[in-house]
Every structure is written in structure tokens, then in C-alpha cells.
Description:
Elements: H1 2-23, H2 29-42, H3 57-75, H4 82-91, E1 120-123, E2 127-131, E3 135-136, E4 140-143, E5 152-156, E6 162-164, E7 170-172, E8 176-184, E9 191-199, E10 206-207, E11 210-213, E12 216-217, H5 236-251, E13 258-260, H6 265-279, H7 281-284, E14 301-304, H8 315-323, E15 329-331, H9 338-341, E16 349-352, H10 355-364, H11 368-372
Parallel strand pairs: 2-9
Antiparallel strand pairs: 1-4, 3-7, 5-8, 6-7, 8-9, 10-11, 11-12, 13-14, 14-16, 15-16
Bound molecules: zinc ion (ZN).
Amino acid sequence: MKNNFVKVSAALTAFLMIFAGTSCGKVDQKNDEKKIISSGTEEPTKDGSSDPSETSYQADSADETTGSTEKQTETVPGTTDKKGYTASGSDKPVSGQPSGTVPNGSSGNGSSGSSSQITDISLTFYDVTLTVGSSKMPIVTMLPADAPNKGEIWTSSDESVAIVDAYGNITGVGKGSCTVTVASSANPDVKAKVNVKVEDAPEVPVADGVTYIDGVLIANKTYSLPASYNPGGLTGECSAAFQQLVNGAAADNINIYLSSGFRSYDYQAQIYNNYVAIDGQANADTYSARPGHSEHQTGLAIDCNIIDDSFTGTPEAIWLENHCHEYGFIIRYPKSKEGITGYKYEPWHIRYIGVEKAKAVHDSGLCLEEYLGITSQYNY
Length: 380
Ligand SMILES: [Zn+2]
């Protein structure tokens, strides 16, 4: 799988390099479309494409494993939290659990023998920002995989901020921060935590179906662009800034080139529908942006160089991370922000927001959603 993935990506990258080399940073949409569509048709993997979400499928598990391992050590703090957990667990008997998930209710700390078998809990995200009324649910993995009792007990440290149901679906209630904890019902010492931040639903100025927040054009899983939004290519400002970035990198002996720029609504629809046909919508949604939700439709996003995980950690990726804000770009989907941006780490995908804002976002250490106080999740 992985080899195949690398091969396909390498072929695509080679093609893209040629393409980028002749286009001087200006995207020829027709070329772009032909290329990506053909790669999608020839090889029915999700990896040939260059969309943020689309390239990520194969690598997801690896990334998430890494993420969970890091987090795991800090989220299983041993005995300190046990009391808090026990108290809230018994104060508030959980109701309506799916059968088999929490077999013995709140008092069921063990049907004896198997009770200590769960040793680890990992989640697909550990930080989440919600607006009041919106929900999000991490996927839970309890280890070892053959443990007989994988019951989960979910609790919220502050139900005036966020509530959580027996399945782990977290819903924002009021502005603030709290922690949602899942513990093994068989071994309550083993737990994992999600830091939850809840914000008021922002008042968002929308003109002609286009969303600007704090002057920044938004295209993510919450906010879409209408089909008619079509700048026809990268905007002039973005192209000029990218050329400066390329020159600045070259002065440091770093070769940055454009691999994918503007993509139209219709093109994104073709890509997405193709994946849905192959893989079903639920799967497609994990790696391919729905039409209108791809940032490439803004004409302000660029995928640089190698569009897959092999780009991570290269001198070019490190240079981008350290310098792209000087030219008005941000790394749009930073590491460890998957639960907030809705996309895994993509060191190759940069977004133009202007020098002043890019510096501010970079210095804040926040991703764009956090910086602007917005969410990125589908609501349909
Ligand atoms: Zn991208």
C-alpha cells in the first residue's frame, strides 16, 4: 500500500514539477485538471490527488499513531485523576449506553478477572474547539485489541461548558474550557482526555455566500464557497507573494516550487464524486474535501513540492515552516491540530493571508481556526 502510494505520488509529483516549471506560478486549470483526473482514474487510490484532505488517507494511521503516542503519555496521569473520575462517575450514572459498551453501568468496575486488561486508550484527537450547539466525537481505540471488556465511561469536567454522551459525542453548551475524559470501565485508571474549548457561534459576515472572518476568506469544513466563486487561478497578490517566497528560498539554497494551486468548484466536485463512487461517502469524507469546501478554490492556497508525507522534515518543509509567514503565507494544517482544522498535518499546503496576519498567526502558535475562533466541521 505504502509503496504503491509513494510510487503514484512520485509520478504525480514529477508531472507536477514539469507543469509548475512551465507555468511560472500561474495555474493553468485545464492542465491541472487533466493531470489529476487521469491520475485518479488510472490508479483508484486516494493518494494521487493534491488536495489537503485527499493526499492524506494512507498516511493517516501513521500520523495518528504518532500523535496518540505522544499524547498518551501525558493523558494517562495515573492516580491523581482517579478520584475526580470516580466521583463524577458515581454521582452521575450514565444512561442509555449502547449494550456491550458499558456493560456494568457506573458501578461496574470489574467483572473480576478481565478488569485490568485495558492498558491504553488512544483517541483520534485530544483538542477540539466547538461552537455552542455543535458536536464532535473522537474515535476511541482501547488496547490491547483482544481485551474482553472495552466499555467506555465518558465524563465532562464542566457540563456548563460541554456535555458528552455515552458514545463520546461532545457538544458545546456554553463559552469556556473544560476537559472531557474517557475511562475504561474495566480499568478506570486508564483514561484519555480531550481538551475542549467552546466558543460562541461567531457572527460571520457573509456576502454572496462568501465568508470573510477578520478579513480572511474562509473555506473549510464549516464554511463553504459557492460554486460560482471562481477567481480563475491564483490571485495576483498570492502569485506575486509566492514568487517572492520562491526567490527568498532560492537565496537560502532551497528550491520551492508550485505543485498545485487553484482548483475550481467543478473540478473539486469531480474529484470528490470519483472518490465517493470508489469508496463510499463516509470514507471519502476522511480524505477528500467536498466541493465548495476546498481551500484551493479560493485561489489563495498552494501545495508546494512533494504532496505527501515524504515531504515532512525535508529542508524545504522546514524552510517553509520557518519562513513562509515572512511572505504572507501560513502552514494551513499544522501538526497536532487535526481535531481543529479537520485535516491532518500538511507541511506542503500554504495559504496566503497577507504578511501582517501571517506573522500574527505564526507567532501565536495557533492554527487559523483557533486564531479566528471558528470551527471546521461539516454540518450536513
Ligand atoms: Zn492543498
